[in-house]
Amino acid sequence: MNQSEQLMENASYSWSEDSVRKIITTGAAAKNTFFYVQEVGYFKTFYPYFTERKNLSSFLIVYTISGRGQLCYEDMNYTLDSGSCFFIDCMPYHKYYVNQNDSWEFLWVHFNGSNARGYYDLFSRNGICITEFLSDRLLNQESFLSSFEALLALWEQKDRTTELIASKILTDLLTGLLLQSDAFSLESSNIPEYITALSKDIELNFKEDLSLTYFEKKYNKSRFSIEKEYKKYMGVTVTESVIRSRLSHAKELLKYSDLSVNEIAYDCGMNHVSHFIHLFKVREHFTPAAYRKEWRNE
Known about the structure:
Elements: E1 8-12, E2 20-23, H1 28-33, E3 36-46, E4 50-54, E5 59-67, E6 69-73, E7 76-80, E8 84-89, E9 94-97, E10 103-112, H2 116-123, E11 130-132, H3 141-154, H4 162-180, H5 193-205, H6 212-219, H7 223-234, H8 238-256, H9 261-267, H10 273-284, H11 288-296
Antiparallel strand pairs: 1-4, 2-3, 3-10, 4-9, 5-8, 5-10, 6-7, 6-9, 8-11
Helix pairs in contact: 3-4, 8-11
């Protein structure tokens, strides 16, 4: 790390006496395997409380219980009202603070782990780092708060299972945040009927030539609208959905039938065997024949 990448941190520690901060030292095995807690706490803060930093190898989740805080992150300013939660990478410059005449009560956890970056990228892929707990969203707010409280309590009586349990709780928190974020919190009632029908069409007819032209004619929609809405509600493109259905069918036949690889390729709707073998190897890291051998333990 060069001089320009050194940790920068400034803070005003203006919080109540019943605030809690626990700094955790994690073992090497947990760091290499699990999500692990670096610090966790509960703060009741008041002006002029603030923290600003950059170049900290950590991810941070902050949930606002009451009052109001402010967050500056990646050239955006956010107001943190009750029920809001932010999730940030602590390497870029960031600052969170309390305005004059405000107070801010919140729960927080600094954590890291080999999959932390992947969760963060999914959460922030729409360019936002904050979500709010609303009554029509998927995650129960009390359950989310219970996870935070369990993390705080976990370190009171530490034993050999503590780091593993902490990783499970962090996984629950992160999964909950993905469900809460706009990209993942689309309830089934909000999905257009034709998208549901199109998805079922792929599931039942993936062996056919399911081109965008086919779907344009069948559902009387432009391919642009189809691609945009299908990706929005299903999380993948139409083409990717077709490929996954074909590969799932291929794996079933490789495991449980005696059809040749050529026959399986055609049965999956792929008329070029070499393309099927290449695609299968790229996706599964096995050739179809090697996959069959692996699963049949021959």
